[in-house]
Write a structure and sequence with these properties.
heterodimer; A: two-stranded antiparallel sheet; 2 strands; 2% strand; B: 340 residues; 3 domains; 15 strands; binds protoporphyrin IX containing FE
């Protein structure tokens, strides 16, 4: 980034990432057994008293909220600087996902205290995006003709909620998998047993399917307007469809077979990985998904 | 009944999903060239499987939201099939001031039951503008078209990009493919003059090779180049507008290079050629599919069904206490009921 000039959004972006980083460290500190009050780890669950130890969670919540404020300012600054919203370049998409994933994760963190320890899985995922955005140039992007369409709002909003719900599922999946190992199981003594985590994770998956379906519908309407066809199996559409199908497959597998918690978690992580590559990988690997030149 | 139950097996559903996933991966980027069976067969398997399940599996037919959702999925498959039978896709280039001619459609694909009547589509192409950002990156297109109303008066409409012209169910979308045209008149030594147009390659995509050929009736092929002044800028924003552009037509004949301004005439084997005017042409994508509104509606119904199902599950069995309030966790461990 040495050659990059210090454009308006960068200091805010860095502050937001720093707040996320701090929140991640405090979250990890909080799950280390000697900092927990009460609770004895058992493989796949907990026993004992779970009271106390909430102070660091308040700090995490405060850090998350400040990260969201900083990121919102960063996005607003960039919007003013280049004249359009964070729709186009990978730099913009990452920045805007850092905010939207963060908003929904923070809401869940606040409203579902029993799941808070899973922040040690979710926050590092946000940090993958954070490290990535730091490696990109904040060059102003071109606003293509197809982006004047108002359906982009619906499509992008629904996609953000969908990805965030998958992230919540991933956080619980990580816990279910780490509970397989004695050494890491102790971090999650304050969380509900795996059976409950698994059911909640798949609740998030089902809600994700609702938003995924709506996102695909809004995307198809936009594609019809923008390119004169609602579906044509381009790289993004094919990948998005396969991800939707993987969600259906996962939900149906659970209806058909009894699936151990860690396998169930691995399935959710697999679905998230598919969604992640659809979202962040393909548009930038395949020029076919990126029209608007000449 | 036993057979129907076997067909309704949820294990078959899983196989169907995997096959459909493979079919989707194979369809990537080349649906029109590759065989559609990789999608059709898994969809047919899933449709039959689902139909059997709806009749035999009380887990699906006794939960109204889930039933609405799965029925809507069936509806979508049927609509897509109808769409494939009745659609039309095509491209057409229309010259400024000339009417749309169905016979000029190229790259036409249509379903065997396509029933649209393109002969009922009437409009005349007007001028257009296209905004460019620096780096020749395309912005908005505004294309004027003139449509005859009931009394035969021409009504102007501006279309472009995501604002198609919709006539008789056919949707006309402007494309990046557009450029300049020269209006020429061939005046033979004997016989009546003919006026026609020659489209030059897409602009500014092929800015560097604005050439074409034309063979007048009973004469030899003529090669043309068009030297355009459009105000194009490489590193600044600019607007492409044929009305502000000028073009010198260079004709090469017998190793001679002759430059023509609009209105100029040159003698050519067996007659004279007049360069009348510089015009533009716009390339349209034509799309016809009577199912799109229904697809939209039924897909929303499917999501409604899914949400209804989800809502019922959430309402009947809310969050276990250990989730909302960790201090009550020990209680929640005892009631590990079916949460979802
Ligand atoms: C095509 C054949 C299909 C069949 C035979 C089928 C059958 C079923 C059945 C029997 C259930 C049982 C519900 C229960 O036990 O509570 C179910 C649930 C469900 N199905 Fe399907 N389905 C099919 C396709 C799909 C597809 C393509 C999707 C798309 C995503 C889908 C999504 C769901 C969902 C979300 C549930 C609810 C899961 C839950 O409550 O945990 N199904 N399906």
């Amino acid at each position: 980034m040495s050659s990059t000039e210090l454009v308006a959004e960068l200091p805010w972006l860095w502050s937001g990432l720093a707040a996320y980083a701090l929140a991640t460290f405090v979250a990890i500190w909080g799950v280390v057994p000697r900092h927990q009050v009460g609770g004895v780890a058992t493989k796949g669950g907990v026993s004992g008293d779970n009271s106390g130890g909430d102070q660091h969670e308040k700090l995490i919540l405060a850090l998350l909220i400040s990260a969201l404020i900083f990121l919102s300012i960063a996005i607003a600054q960039r919007w003013i600087r280049i004249g359009h919203g964070p729709w186009i370049s990978l730099f913009e998409l990452l920045m805007s996902q850092l905010l939207s994933l963060g908003v929904i994760f923070t809401l869940a963190y606040w409203r579902l205290p029993g799941l808070r320890a899973s922040a040690v899985i979710a926050l590092p995922v946000l940090w993958v995006l954070g490290t990535w955005v730091l490696m990109l140039e904040p060059t102003a992007s071109h606003f293509p003709a197809t982006y004047y369409n108002q359906w982009k709002w619906a499509h992008v909003f629904l996609g953000k909620v969908y990805l965030a719900l998958l992230l919540l599922g991933v956080a619980l999946s990580g816990v279910m998998i780490l509970r397989q190992f004695e050494r890491t199981a102790v971090y999650f003594v304050r969380m509900p047993v795996n059976e409950i985590l698994d059911k909640i994770a798949w609740r998030f998956m089902m809600l994700a399917l609702v938003f995924d379906s709506l996102m695909l519908i809004a995307g198809a309407v936009w594609a019809q307007d923008a390119w004169g066809r609602y579906w044509s199996w381009d790289a993004l559409e094919t990948s998005a469809f396969i991800t939707w199908l993987a969600l259906a497959l996962g939900l149906h597998l659970r209806l058909t077979y009894r699936i151990p918690a860690w396998v169930s978690g691995a399935m959710i992580i697999g679905i998230f990985a598919l969604a992640f590559t659809t979202y962040f990988g393909l548009p930038y690997l395949s020029p076919a998904a990126h029209k608007g030149m000449v | 009944m036993k057979i129907i139950r076997a067909i309704a097996s949820l294990k078959l559903t899983l196989v169907g999903f995997v096959l459909l996933g493979i079919g989707a991966a194979l369809s990537y980027d080349n649906l029109l060239n590759s065989t559609a069976w990789v999608i059709v067969i898994p969809l047919a398997v899933l449709a039959i499987n689902l139909l059997a399940a709806i009749f035999t599996n009380s887990r699906i037919n006794s939960q109204p939201g889930l039933l609405v959702f799965h029925l809507a999925l069936l509806g979508l498959v049927i609509l897509v099939a109808i769409g494939r039978l009745t659609y039309l896709d095509g491209h057409v280039e229309i010259v400024e001031s000339q009417p749309f001619e169905p016979s000029e459609i190229t790259e036409e694909f249509k379903g065997p039951l396509h029933a649209g009547i393109l002969d009922n589509v009437h409009f005349i192409q007007g001028p257009y503008t296209v905004d460019y950002d620096s780096g020749v990156r395309r912005g908005l297109t505004f294309s004027q078209v003139f449509i005859p109303d009931a009394r035969g008066n021409l009504v102007k409409k501006v279309i472009g990009d995501d604002r198609p012209l919709v006539l008789e169910g056919f949707r006309f979308y402007t494309t990046f493919n557009k450029g300049f045209t020269v209006l020429l008149t061939w005046i033979p030594d004997q016989g009546v003059p003919v006026t026609g147009t020659v489209n030059m390659p897409s602009y500014p995509l092929f800015d560097y090779k604005q050439g074409n050929t034309w063979t007048p009736p009973n004469s030899q092929e003529i090669k043309f180049w068009l030297q355009l002044q459009t105000g194009m800028k490489l590193d600044e924003a600019w607007r492409l507008d044929g009305r502000n552009a000028t073009g010198v037509l260079v004709v090469s004949q017998d190793k001679q290079r002759i430059e023509l301004q609009p209105g100029d005439t040159i003698p050519i084997h067996g007659g004279k050629l007049r360069y009348d005017k510089l015009l533009t042409w716009m390339g349209y994508k034509i799309f016809y599919n009577p199912t799109i509104k229904w697809l939209f509606f039924v897909s929303l119904v499917s999501v409604f069904g899914m949400s209804w199902h989800y809502w019922q599950k959430m309402a009947s069995r809310p969050w276990p206490e250990g989730v909302k309030n960790p201090k009550e966790e020990s209680k929640s461990q005892q009631q590990q009921g079916d949460v979802i």
